[in-house]
Structures are given as structure tokens and as C-alpha cells.
Amino acid sequence: MRKIILIISAIMLLTNMGMYAKYNIETNATQTKTELIKKTPTVTTKPATTAKTPAEISTKKQEEKSSIETEKAQRVTEQKEQANQQAAFVERIKELIEEVDLVSNDVKSIRTQLLIAEIVAGLAIVLALCAVVILINEKKKFRDKLIRELNDCWEGGRMDNFARRVAEKAKSASSSSSSSIAYQPAKINQGELKSMIDDYLTTKLEQEEKQQEIKLEEQRIFQQNQPKKLFADSIVENHFNKISENADDDTVFELYLKKETDLKAEFTIYENAKRRVLKNADFIDGCDKQKINSNPIDLQIEKGTAILQDGKWQISQKAKVKFV
């Protein structure tokens, strides 16, 4: 579209320039012819007694000169008007080109938006189809699992309410029929089937809850038998202050329990706190301190013990720390 408009504009511009050139040629020819006519002396047959005076000749020359200047001014004015028209035409072409660019950009933007909308719609359709497929697969899995569990109950002799009721229904239907008549499957109405399924699901949920409780209890017992670490920031009045299960920047002591339920723990200086203790021994007040080197670079630690009393870890044996 833009190329077509540019071609039409170029044709119009060339046409106007051709017309302007033709007009200039015709104007110049007319002016030249007029000047030649004016310059050509006219032969008069007037008698010698009617000769013009010098004043008349001067006046006539001035009139001719004034006429020539007027024509020149008119030609200059016409040329300026034509130049202005051409400039205005060129500006109009530029405006048309800009409008075409804007329209083209709008079209591109609309196309992009439509493409995005189509992509989003396609993704929504794909997601919907995936959801349907997943739902169908889950339904099939549940059905297969239900059938497997029923088979396992039957083969293993673990008849729950659901299987027992179905068996009783089949037994009652078969016993009521004559031995000479072929066996017909028992017919179960929708209400009975729903009741059976509810009983079965209730039984399965109870079994799963019991299994979950057993697993949680096993995990709790296992956790209680696992070693555990506690952390403290200081010893105040022969017990640890601010006990926590996680170390932080203020941690100075580390307590070690062989089992989570133990009431006795060994303690030592937390590894990341040793530099602070080397600089300032006051951090380990409550321990037996021995300074062997005036400028110590390491610590020799003999672990202490603590016991849990009244919710506080009391120091039962102080740790011994040598600054070496």
C-alpha cells in the first residue's frame, strides 16, 4: 500500500513539473515575441509635419520601460507562486507518507495483538484438553486400584464390608434360583451399590488413617532416638542462657545429646565462636579457664556436662579450657 501511494505521488509530482516547464516555455515565448514587436520600429506614413517631440519620445520610452518592469515583476511573482505550490505539494506528499507509516504501524500492532490472542486461545485449549486427559486417567487409575484392592481382599481372605455384602447378595440370588437354571449374576440397585461403596470407602479411609498414625508414631520414636544438638550464648548462675536448636552470631556453647529424650548432655565451645573466645575469655565465664600462652592462638578443650532440671540445663561438670 505504501509503495502504491509513493508511486502515485511521484507521478503527480512529475506531471506538475512538466506542466510548469511547459508553462514557462510558453510564457517566455510570449514575452520574447512581445519584446520583439515592441523593439521593431513601426513605419508610419504620417507626413513629416507630425514628427514627435523629444518630450513625447521620452515619455513613451518611460512607459515602455515601466511596462517591461511590470511584466518582469509579474513573471517573478508567478514563479514564486509556482515554487510555493511545488513546496506545498512536496510537504503534502511527506504528510501522506507519514500517515501511511502510522497506518502501517497500527496494522502491524493489530496483527501482533491478534497473533497473541490466537496463541493464548490455543494454549487455553491445550490446557483444557490436558485437564480432561488427566481427569480421565485419574478416574481410570482409581477404578483399576479399586478393582485390584477388591481382588487382593478376595484372594487374601480379608473380606471387608463391601466384598462381604456383594458376596452375600450373590449368594442369596444364587440360592433362590433352581439348580437346573443357569446362574444369573445378582442385580444390585443403585441405592444398594452406593451404600456398599460408601462402606468400602469408609473402611479404606479408616485403614489409611491408622497406617498414617502408625507411621507418625514410628517417625516420632525414631526422632527421639536420634542425636540432637542445642546451642547457648552464655552461662549465667551455673546454667545455660538462651537455649536454641539453631546457632546464630551470639552462639558460644554447643550441647550434644545422644538421644532427643536424654536429660544429660555434653557441652563444648562452638567452633565458630573460638576466635571471639581467644580475643575475650569473658565469653566462657562458668568454665575452668587456664591461660598458658600470653598470646594464645588455639584452645584445648575438655568437654563439660550439663543436666536438665526444672526446664534449665544446669552445669554438673565445668568444661576445662586452656589458652595455648
How would you describe this protein?
The chain has helices at residues 2-39, 54-156, 161-175, 190-224, 274-279; strands at 228-232, 234-236, 239-241, 253-257, 264-269, 288-291, 299-302, 304-309, 312-317, 320-323. Helix content is 61%, strand content 14%. Among the domains are: 2-35 and 63-116; 228-323, no CATH class. Residues 39-49 and 177-186 have low confidence and may be disordered. It has a five-stranded antiparallel sheet, with no helix packed on it. The protein starts with a helix and ends with a strand. Strand 4 (253-257) and strand 5 form a beta hairpin. By secondary structure, the protein is of the alpha+beta class. The protein contains five helices and ten strands, in the order H-H-H-H-E-E-E-E-E-H-E-E-E-E-E.
Summarize the structure.
By secondary structure, the protein is an alpha+beta fold.
What are the main properties of this structure?
single chain; 324 residues; alpha+beta; five-stranded antiparallel beta sheet; elongated
Which strands sit side by side, in order, in the main sheet? 1-4-5-8-9
Distance between the termini: 91 Å
| Protein structure class | alpha+beta
What fraction of residues sit in β-strands? 5-15%
Could you tell me the mean pLDDT?
76
Number of distinct helices: 5
Shape: elongated
Element-by-element helix/strand order:
HHHHEEEEEHEEEEE
Radius of gyration (Å): 57 Å
**What helical percentage do the residues reach?**
55-70%
Largest sheet: 5 strands, antiparallel
**Regions with little confidence, pLDDT below 50 for 5+ residues:** 39-49, 177-186
Number of strands: 10
